[in-house]
TrEMBL record:
Pfam families per record: JAB
Biased composition (Polar residues): 170-181
Segments passing through the bilayer: none
Presence of the UniProt keyword Hydrolase in the record: yes
Domain MPN: 30-165
GO biological process, one term: proteolysis
Protein name, UniProt field: MPN domain-containing protein
Gene3D superfamilies, per the entry: Cytidine Deaminase, domain 2
One GO molecular-function entry: metallopeptidase activity
């Protein structure tokens, strides 16, 4: 009977670790500075009803942390539903300017807006993210909704693609033991 209780309570049975063993949290967190967030929202609002996009500058602090300290807008042609891929000439020129000014940050990903229709990646967005991940597998895509971000609540989410080959092998690219990073979204209290 005691064995059955252990199995059903998850205390070391059925592949669960004993309750006193530590669980490692390997989820990643993306920290976005106030400056970067305000610039994303301002850029997104200015582009309504069209989508806008830009590059995120920052650092990969460690294996589990991405810090975004600044962003800059990118010229692109957008529709209400998607933005075209990154203008590589503009991106190269901006990165050269950053080097000349001595800024230590690197491109950690890109952001774009979905004005009025929430945070998710469209097919075009997935293609853009694939091009970023080809340069750096830890690159992050951030989507912000400037229309739904009202009264101190910011509608924002971060994404990274999952390699389908990893999923077919039954492996997760990262073991996630909590959703702490997903619950702590920025908000402005009034």
């Amino acid at each position: 009977m005691e064995r059955l209780q252990r199995i059903f309570s998850g205390a070391g049975g059925m592949g669960h670790p004993p309750p006193d063993s530590p669980l490692l949290d390997s989820s990643e967190q993306v920290y976005i500075s106030s400056l970067a967030l305000l610039k994303m929202l301002k850029h997104g609002r200015a582009g309504v009803p069209m989508e806008v996009m830009g590059l995120m500058l920052g650092e990969f602090v460690d294996e589990y942390t991405v810090r975004v300290v600044d962003v800059f807008a990118m010229p692109q042609s957008g529709t209400g539903v998607s933005v075209e891929a990154v203008d590589h000439v503009f991106q190269t020129n901006m990165l050269d300017m950053l080097k000349q000014t001595g800024r230590p940050e690197m491109v950690v990903g890109w952001y774009h807006s979905h004005p009025g229709f929430g945070c998710w990646l469209s097919g075009v967005d997935i293609n853009t993210q694939q091009s970023f991940e080809a340069l750096n597998q830890r690159a992050v895509a951030v989507v912000v909704d400037p229309i739904q971000s009202v009264k101190g609540k910011v509608v924002i989410d971060a994404f990274r693609l999952i390699n389908p080959q990893t999923m077919m092998l039954g492996q997760e690219p990262r073991q996630t033991t909590s959703n702490l990073g997903h619950l702590n979204k920025p908000s402005i209290r009034r």
